[in-house]
Design brief:
This protein is an alpha/beta fold and 273 residues long. It folds into two domains: 4-106, Ribosomal protein L30/S12 (60s Ribosomal Protein L30, Chain: A), CATH 3.30.1330; 113-269, SPOUT methyltransferase, trefoil knot domain (Alpha/beta knot, 3-Layer(aba) Sandwich), CATH 3.40.1280.10. It is built from twelve helices and twelve strands. It has helices at 16-19, 23-27, 42-50, 70-75, 86-89, 113-119, 132-144, 162-168, 188-194, 214-217, 235-240, 258-269; strands spanning 4-6, 36-40, 55-61, 81-84, 101-106, 122-126, 149-152, 177-179, 198-202, 209-210, 222-226, 243-246. Helix 7 packs parallel to helix 8 and helix 7 (132-144) packs parallel to helix 12. The chain is elongated, with a radius of gyration of 21 Å. The N and C termini lie far apart (53 Å). This is RNA methyltransferase. It comes from Gallintestinimicrobium propionicum. One of its GO terms (biological process) is methylation. Residues 123-266 form the tRNA/rRNA methyltransferase SpoU type domain.
Length: 273
C-alpha cells in the first residue's frame, strides 16, 4: 500500500531534498556512490526507472494522485509519495517545468571507460563542456542519432544535474556514459586508439576534412570529440587525433553552438557502412 504524505508548508523539512539542497550537495562529491539526483516529469521518471535507477521518494501535486501518478504508485508501492497543493509547489524554482511530478533517486553506478570502449562502435567524447543545457541537448542527440556511449572529461557538467536531465528528456538514462579520469587528453586518446577507434576532433583547422568525407563513415569504430562552448578543443587534443573534422558553413558563419554541432555530427558520423 503506497504511503502518501500530505505537505502544506513549503518549509517542511521533507521538502529539503527537492527545495533546499544544492546540486553539489545532492551529488555528494565526497561519496558520489551515495549521491542523489532529481528526475522531473513523468516521462523522465519513467525512463530513469526503466534504466534501473532506485527511487527514494516522489513529490507530486495533489490532483495528480488520481491520474498521472497512478502508474508510479502501482510500480513503486513501498516508496513514499509526498503530495502538496499547486500553490505550495510553485514556490519551488522551476516547478512549472516539471509537469507536476518530481522523484529523488539514487545515482546509478557508472560503467568503466574500458567497458564503454569495448561495447561501442560510435563514441562521443565531451571535453570541458560546462553548460548543463548543452550537456542535456548533446545527450538527446547522441541517443537519437546513433551514438553508442558518451565519455566526459572531469571538468564537464554532470549529466545528472536537474537541468541536464530535463533538457535531455531522460535520454541520460538510455545511453551509457561515464567520466574519464584526469589523464585526458593523453593517454586518454591513446586508450581510444588501442580499442580500435579512429579519433576525430570537431574543430576549424586548415587541414580539417569535411564531415561528409566518405572515409569517416566507413570506419568501423569512430570517436567524435567535441570541445567547450568558448575555447573549443585543447590544441593537444586536436594534434593527437587521427582527423580534424569541420561542418561546412555558409553566409560567413564560422561555427555552431556545440549542441547544434553535435546533432549535425552525430547524424552524419553515426552512419555505418
Amino acid at each position: 500500500m503506497p504511503t502518501i504524505l500530505p505537505i502544506t508548508d513549503f518549509l517542511d523539512p521533507q521538502l529539503d531534498i527537492y527545495a533546499r539542497l544544492s546540486e553539489n550537495q545532492l551529488l555528494n562529491r565526497c561519496d558520489p556512490q551515495n549521491g542523489i539526483f532529481i528526475a522531473e516529469s513523468p516521462k523522465v521518471i519513467e525512463r530513469a526507472l526503466d534504466a534501473g535507477c532506485i527511487p527514494i521518494s516522489f513529490l507530486t501535486e495533489d490532483r495528480h494522485l488520481e491520474n498521472q501518478a497512478v502508474p508510479f504508485l502501482e510500480r513503486c508501492p513501498d516508496i513514499p509519495f509526498f503530495s502538496a497543493p499547486f500553490e505550495v509547489l510553485t514556490q519551488l524554482t522551476g516547478f512549472a517545468l516539471t509537469r507536476g511530478m518530481l522523484c529523488a533517486m539514487r545515482r546509478p553506478r557508472l560503467p568503466s571507460v574500458e567497458a564503454l570502449c569495448r561495447t561501442s562502435s560510435r563514441l562521443v567524447i565531451l571535453e570541458n563542456i560546462m553548460n548543463p543545457t548543452n550537456i542535456g541537448a548533446i545527450f538527446r542527440s547522441a541517443a537519437a542519432l546513433g551514438m553508442d556511449g558518451v565519455l566526459l572529461t572531469s571538468d564537464c557538467s554532470n549529466p545528472l544535474y536537474r537541468r541536464a536531465i530535463r533538457v535531455s528528456m531522460g535520454t541520460v538514462f538510455q545511453i551509457p556514459w561515464t567520466f574519464l579520469d584526469s589523464s585526458w587528453p593523453l593517454p586518454g586518446i591513446s586508450e581510444l586508439k588501442n580499442h580500435g577507434f579512429h579519433t576525430v576532433s570537431m574543430a576549424l583547422r586548415r587541414d580539417s576534412v569535411s564531415i561528409d568525407d566518405p572515409k569517416l563513415s566507413s570506419k568501423q569504430k569512430l570517436a567524435v570529440i567535441l570541445g567547450s562552448e568558448g575555447e573549443g578543443l585543447l590544441d593537444e587534443t586536436i594534434n593527437n587525433c587521427d582527423d580534424t573534422v569541420c561542418i561546412p558553413m555558409f553566409h560567413g558563419v564560422d561555427s555552431l553552438n556545440v549542441a547544434a554541432a553535435s546533432a549535425v555530427a552525430f547524424w552524419e558520423l553515426g552512419k555505418r557502412k
